[in-house]
Amino acid sequence: MSAHIIAARRSPVMPRGGAFRALLPHELAAPVIRATLADAGLAVDQVDELILSNALGAGGNPARLAALAAGLPERVAGLTIDRQCAGGLDAIRLAAAMVVAGQAEVVLAGGAESYSRRPLRFATAPGQDPQPYNQPPFTPWPERDPDMTAAAAALATRLGISRARQEAWAMRSHQRALDADLPELLAFAEAARDGFPRQLTPALLARARLLAGGITSATTAVAADASAFVLVVSARLAAQAARAVQIRASATLGAAPDEPGLSPVPAIRAVLAKAGLEARDLAQVELMEAYAVQALACMDACGLPEDRVNLNGGALARGHPIGASGTILATRLFHDLRQGHGLAAIAAAGGIGSALILSA
């Protein structure tokens, strides 16, 4: 048994407070779900399940809301997962596992995130007033649960990845995003393109706000709103589709929680081994750029060929809608990969990495 992707769509990625500021996750998701099914020529009643990654919501199973809002049959229960940044790839991994196990033949998998509409969060303790917080704990040990930007700065220092190299990568990301033709985009809510890419110059980069160490606002992905979905189906349906790529291998693995930027490395190595491939065999790589240093460090550690990574720009240019970011990587890969093998990989807080290999 095998699992295949036959359609993939995403919304534009819009910075927090931008064109999608009024939309809740299920409202971001529903149009993209409908467009993905339309691309594949499948009817809503053929869908067996919908899996949605969401990290910032307040629970309530937004996958169920998205399924109903998109007009899927009421029998499609909807499953919401939260593995933070890795969730968008893990939704696809779960969908593939269902298909391979024979539990489903058609699964919509993806993510939707609204930074703009995320709820305010407060921690409570007996005898104390509620205290607001932005980042929940990702380990039981505060000394091994760093702020993400501080962890990126420490990684840059340890590995000797200079601010200049990070800025060069950010400039490349933005320029490629500006130049890109992106067939996966679904225009809605008056947004037809990603809202953040811009023409960066050395002068602009020099003026960027310093966040920690050599990490600046220009070498960090901005908070964003977006949704993305892929349609995962059986080999039988893939054989009838106009286009299909096989989900060749996937893995999600834990790594050192205090160095989250390197967490994709074990997962990347695992999927390459599962697929019997070397890094040089990859035709294309979609690698998360939460921070420029994180992408560069993973490329260096895994020997990923720089000239095949993020060919149409990355998250430094788009932004980071946490629960949707992994699916955006897979969606980009699906649309670009015409032959050979492609890798999508992402890091998550707490020291988690997810990776996926698609074969055309």
Descriptive notes:
- The protein has helices at residues 25-40, 62-69, 87-100, 148-159, 163-179, 202-207, 235-240, 264-275, 292-302, 315-318, 322-336; strands at residues 3-10, 14-15, 49-53, 79-81, 106-113, 122-123, 131-132, 210-212, 215-216, 224-234, 245-254, 282-287, 341-348, 352-359.
- The longest helix is centred in the middle third of the chain and has 17 residues, at 163-179.
- The two termini are 17 Å apart.
- With 360 residues, the chain is an alpha+beta fold.
- It has a single domain, classed as 3-Layer(aba) Sandwich (Peroxisomal Thiolase, Chain A, domain 1).
- Helix 1 packs across helix 2 and helix 3 packs across helix 11.
- Belongs to the thiolase-like superfamily. Thiolase family.
- InterPro entries: Thiolase, Thiolase-like, Thiolase_C, Thiolase_CS, Thiolase_N.
- GO terms for molecular function: acetyl-CoA C-acyltransferase activity.
- It comes from Gemmobacter fulvus.
Average pLDDT, rounded to a whole number, is 97
Give the end-to-end Cα distance, rounded to a whole number of Å. Answer: 17 Å
Count of extended strands: 14
The H-level CATH homologous superfamily, spelled out, is Thiolase/Chalcone synthase
CATH topology: Peroxisomal Thiolase, Chain A, domain 1
Radius of gyration, CA atoms, in whole angstroms? 19 Å
Derived structural class? alpha+beta
Low-confidence stretches: none
- The appropriate CATH architecture is 3-Layer(aba) Sandwich
- Helix tally? 11
Shape, per Cα inertia axes: globular
The biggest beta sheet reads: 10 strands, mixed
Using the coordinates above, name the CATH class.
Alpha Beta
Helix-strand pattern, N to C?
Answer: EEHEHEHEEEHHHEEEHEHEHHHEE
Q: How much strand?
A: 15-25%
For the record, the count of structural domains works out to: 1
Q: Give the % helix.
A: 25-40%
InterPro entries: Thiolase, Thiolase-like, Thiolase_C, Thiolase_CS, Thiolase_N
Domain Thiolase C-terminal: 245-359
Protein name: Thiolase family protein
Organism: Gemmobacter fulvus
